[in-house]
Amino acid sequence: MPTQYAHWVTPGVCYNSIGYYEVPNARVVYRTKGVVRSFGIASMISWRGQWYVVHLGAVLRTTTAGHGEVDAPATGPGTPAYSSTC
After folding, report:
1. In this structure, which long-range contacts are made by residues 53-58, counting pairs with CB atoms below 8 Å and at least 24 apart in sequence?
2. Is 27 helix (H, G, I), strand (E, B) or coil?
3. What is the pLDDT of residues 11-62, one digit of tens each?
4. 35-39 long-range CB contacts below 8 Å, 24 or more apart?
5. How far apart are CA 35 and CA 82, in angstroms?
6. What span, in angstroms and rounded, lies between the C-alpha atoms of 75 and 55?
7. What is the SS3 assignment for 60?
8. Cβ partners under 8 Å of residue 16, min gap 6
9. What are the φ and ψ backbone dihedral angles of 47, each rounded to 5 degrees?
10. Which of 20, 36, 63, 66 is the most exposed place for a label (fewest CB within 10 A)?
11. How far apart are CA 37 and CA 74, in angstroms?
């Protein structure tokens, strides 16, 4: 988890009524058939001391229901990057 990007999201921001901590752009790293691959976790939040993955793929607010997007797939572990909230 790229803790250098962790930040507090103030109540009322991003369609939420409570405040919470968010870490954008963590990565799932896995190995299949000897090849390391990864993809992004668009957003993880902490509420009441527990971490939750809230957007596994890219945050897409304008897509048709039932469709999604794999966030930044890569061969290798990939690189977390800063992303602003919402």
Report:
1. none
2. strand
3. 988 788 988 998 888 888 999 999 999 988 888 889 888 889 887 766 666 6
4. 35/75, 36/75, 36/76, 36/77, 37/73, 37/74, 37/75, 37/76, 38/73, 38/74, 38/76, 38/77, 38/78, 39/70, 39/71, 39/72, 39/73, 39/74, 39/78
5. 26
6. 21
7. coil
8. 9
9. -140, 125
10. 66
11. 6
